[in-house]
Design brief:
Keywords: GTP-binding, Nucleotide-binding, Repeat, Ribosome biogenesis. Helix 2 packs across helix 14. With 512 residues, the chain is α/β, with parallel strands linked by helices. Strands 3-4-2-5-6-7 form a six-stranded mixed β-sheet, sandwiched between helices. A six-stranded mixed β-sheet has the order 10-11-9-12-13-14, with helices on both faces. A three-stranded mixed β-sheet has the order 15-16-17. The chain is elongated and about 85 Å long. It is built from 15 helices and 17 strands. Strand 10 and strand 11 form a beta hairpin. The chain folds into three domains: 123 residues, K homology (KH) domain (GMP Synthetase, Chain A, domain 3); 161 residues, P-loop containing nucleotide triphosphate hydrolases (Rossmann fold, 3-Layer(aba) Sandwich), CATH 3.40.50.300; 180 residues, Rossmann fold, CATH 3.40.50.
Length: 512
């Protein structure tokens, strides 16, 4: 069970000298005592899974792996020609959000693709339009950046409509980029429609490749041609870092998640707009921050009730959950200018359920700078809200930032490092059992139904998140498990990481 309960345990305070006693314990002596307890388990019925657990020590490596930069293929075109549908067809799975309305994709979103044994990076973009205004202008700008940062461009045109004036504007933009361009004539669902694709020779980009993103027709031939154009190693992308340190940015809509990513990257990487729900696809970006390389993922805002969301919002929420599962630490962004809501708490609980490390980023702190009037009053109420509503994650590092101005952004990296260090932590079995012995001696489990459950042995089964297993003679009350969890935090820290404490109730083997 994860330590998300806010109820106080009933076991009082522990001797304050216990932390020093456990931390300075001779490891050899502690290991010998733990081995003796482990041998005592031979008198109890253990299954194969128990024996595997007792034999497994675990090894979590944090070494970074450097990978060659994959070639980059940007997919561009005017709105609603089927770019995201073609991305899904190339990937072989429903990854990009697709809907029969223009403008669903807004940011440039990267995916890893593979064809004929070669790996490459796909960049899906929003629809490009000339003279776009407002948020559409930002979407078009992101598409142009995607072209600049690509090794080749796949230009998608709706063959059933033919070349439009907007398509001709896109052609001029692509020619100015001096990038290799492959022309895909989409929505050619059968051979009878192929003459419609031939008309696109007039765009002057060479042979149009007739495809159907919906049915997959012609996509294999198109990809074979794409591989002849893409270089083996990208000439524009950075060397990639594999392995750990993936950071998901979560929060409800319009709290400043995209602004936070832009400030970390140092450029307008994602579209920022006052319109709630601007981000729909998770935006994955490699960031150098605090002298280290991180993989930041900006996610769509999680709305109040995902099961009531429809269309693009529903699929965006699903992809946000998937991005969290791939991350190691989540930064939950909270807007300090508004009351902490049930929605904020639900997002935090989603992180706890996923077992990821947690950092709380209180954004828009620059709006509370004044020591007078409304700002001072809001700060006072905010601290009360944090104390009451976020008591169950009091262990999470907290940073007060302004993503818009960059204020205190330097505090984000130490908070991430602290949370990840806790998430990776392993406690020596000897010290853990010494702690259990001290706790049970000072505060034994209450008698329930005439019996008093005993803890026979404890071990840390895993890290990421720290997961402990207790072999017991009976069921331990939730309050007692919370008591153990709190003492683990007092002695070993675990700031920023949830802790799971599980039980295995075992009976003594009957003598023949």
């Amino acid at each position: 069970m994860a330590d998300t309960d806010t109820d106080k345990d009933d076991f009082g305070d522990v001797d304050p000298r216990l932390a020093d006693k456990i931390q300075t314990l001779d490891e050899t002596d502690a290991a010998q005592r733990a081995n003796a307890l482990r041998l005592g388990l031979a008198d109890y019925d253990l299954d194969a899974e128990d024996l595997d657990l007792l034999e497994t020590t675990g090894d979590d490596s944090d070494e970074l792996i450097y990978l060659p930069a994959l070639p980059v293929l940007a997919i561009v075109g005017r709105p609603n020609v089927g770019k995201s549908a073609l991305v899904n067809r190339i990937l072989g799975r429903r990854e990009a959000v697709v809907q029969d309305t223009p403008g669903v994709t807004r940011d440039r979103v990267t995916y890893k693709g593979e064809w004929a044994g070669r790996n490459f990076t796909l960049v899906d973009t929003g629809g490009w339009e000339p003279d776009a205004k407002g948020i559409n202008a930002s979407v078009a700008a992101q598409a142009e950046i995607a072209v600049d940062l690509a090794d080749a461009v796949l230009f998608v045109v709706d063959a059933t409509v033919g070349a439009t004036s907007t398509d001709e504007h896109v052609v001029r933009m692509l020619r100015a980029s001096n990038k290799p361009v492959i022309l895909a004539a989409n929505k050619v669902d059968d051979a009878r429609q192929e003459p419609e694709a031939a008309v696109l020779w007039g765009l002057g980009l060479g042979e149009p490749w007739p495809v159907s993103a919906l049915h997959g027709r012609g996509v294999a031939d198109l990809l074979d041609h794409v591989l002849t154009v893409l270089p083996e190693i990208s000439t524009v992308a950075k060397e990639e870092v594999g392995g750990p340190r993936r950071v998901a940015i979560l929060g409800r809509p319009n709290v400043g998640k995209s602004s936070l990513l832009n400030k970390a990257v140092g450029e307008e990487r994602v579209v920022v707009n006052d319109l709630a729900g601007t981000t729909r696809d998770p935006v994955d970006e490699q960031v150098e921050l605090g002298g280290k390389v991180w993989r930041f993922v900006d996610t769509a805002g999680i709305r109040r009730r995902m099961n009531l969301a429809q269309g693009a919002d529903f699929y965006a929420s699903l992809r946000t959950s998937a991005a969290l599962e791939k991350a190691e630490v989540a930064v939950v962004v909270i807007d300090v200018s508004q009351v902490i809501s049930e929605q904020d708490i639900r997002i935090i609980d989603l992180v706890l359920e996923s077992g990821r490390a947690l950092v709380l980023a209180f954004n828009k702190w620059d709006t509370l700078d004044s020591d007078e009037g409304i700002e001072k009053e809001r700060r006072r109420y905010l601290e009360r809200e944090i104390e009451q509503d976020l008591a169950h994650v009091a262990w999470a590092p907290r940073v007060n930032i302004s993503a818009r101005t960059g204020r205190h952004m330097e505090k984000l990296v130490p908070a991430l490092e602290l949370a990840l260090e806790s998430w990776d932590t392993r406690i020596p079995t000897g010290k853990f059992n010494a702690l259990l012995a001290e706790l049970t001696a000072e505060h034994p489990h209450p008698v329930r139904g005439g019996k008093q459950p005993r803890i026979l042995f404890g071990t840390q089964a895993a890290s990421r998140p720290p997961t402990f297993v207790l072999f017991t003679t009976g069921f331990l009350d939730p309050q007692y498990r919370r008591f153990i969890t709190r003492r683990l935090r007092e002695i070993f820290g675990f700031e920023g990481s949830p802790i799971n404490v599980n039980m295995r109730v075992r009976e003594k083997r009957k003598r023949n």
